[in-house]
Amino acid sequence: MTPPPIDLRSDTVTKPSPGMRRAMAEAEVGDDVLDGDPTTRRLEQRIAELLGTEDALFFPSGTQANQTGIALVTEPGTELLLEANAHLVHSEVAGVAALSGVQIRPITTPEGLLTADLVRGALRAPSPHVPRIRALAIENTHNTAGGRVLDAAGVDGLTRAARDARLAVHLDGARLWNAAVAAGVAPARLAQGADTVMVSISKGLGCPVGSCLGFKREWRARAWEIRKRLGGGMRQSGILAAAGLYALDHNLARIGEDHANAKRFAELLSGSPTVRPSAPESNIVMVDLLRSGDTPESVSQRLAQAGVRLAPWGPRRLRAVTHLDITRADVERAARIILETLA
Ligand SMILES: *Cc1c(COP(=O)(O)O)cnc(C)c1O
Predict the structure, then answer these.
(1) What tens digit of pLDDT does each residue of 81-119 get?
(2) Is any ligand 1 atom within 6 A of the Cβ of residue 63?
(3) Does residue 105 lie in a domain region?
(4) Spatial CA neighbour of 315 closest among 288, 334, 336
(5) Are residues 179 and 58 in the same domain?
(6) Would you tell me which of 150, 155, 191, 326 could form a disulfide with 197, CB atoms 3.0–4.6 Å apart?
(7) Is the pTM of this model over 0.70?
């Protein structure tokens, strides 16, 4: 029997473990829209504590939590500064424009890492003609940059630049757990200085559904209203929140293993004449194709047949992501299959 393919396309492919499913089945629930769900509230409070925010709200997706965060910190007809390859720019179907009426102002960076100087350089003198910049969005870790990490000093520089210019700060922390482990600090340290903080439980933590948005207490009613408008009010959401509580207890502390596995994977691919792996800072490895005849689509198809799944990511690139359902033996076998298939 051939083993199932090693799926490195994304850390969203994880399946809930038996323990997680049991926690979900046994969750105490209520109608969260009508009068509250106790397990959902427990998750929100626990996440708020981890983020160092006064409160948090549970969402069905990171995209919806991101969009609510942007709506909270902007007004229609203003601008949002962000890194040019941010998820908010490329992967949320122009939600910032469509839902918040906000113009995005992408900042091009050499390697995906925003700096305080780049933010200052994007500011403009006030004038009746130019749009008023209202907020800065930070992505940590930065997905398309290959899981790159902004450490505490990097974050502080950005939030200081934002404060100096009176900009609000939204943190897209879909993988903030990974950033914190890589930077060697608590998640709250990297969220410090942000007004709204999105974190996902459906990526590194291995839950089937969900993200949270952290913010200050008085923003809860407004955040709730925006979520409702976006269709994100959920009823017995405690079944999903229970997975999050379970993941915080069982899966958060092991995220470093994913980073070690990503390093091992990159190490095994390095020196290959056919592919060049990035040097991973967290759980993402970008794999560049070196031979002109190889395209991401053709290579990913051949690899899938050979037992490894990677995601095409740009004209010469594939993305590999390590996660809860991937072991060290898996990444070692995956690297071997890649080297053999492309040899
Ligand atoms: C996945 C992701 C999101 C969106 O989360 P969904 O739950 O897929 O909507 C937002 N930002 C970043 C950086 C992501 O990687």
Answers:
(1) 999 999 999 999 999 999 999 999 999 998 899 999 999
(2) yes
(3) yes
(4) 288
(5) yes
(6) 191
(7) yes
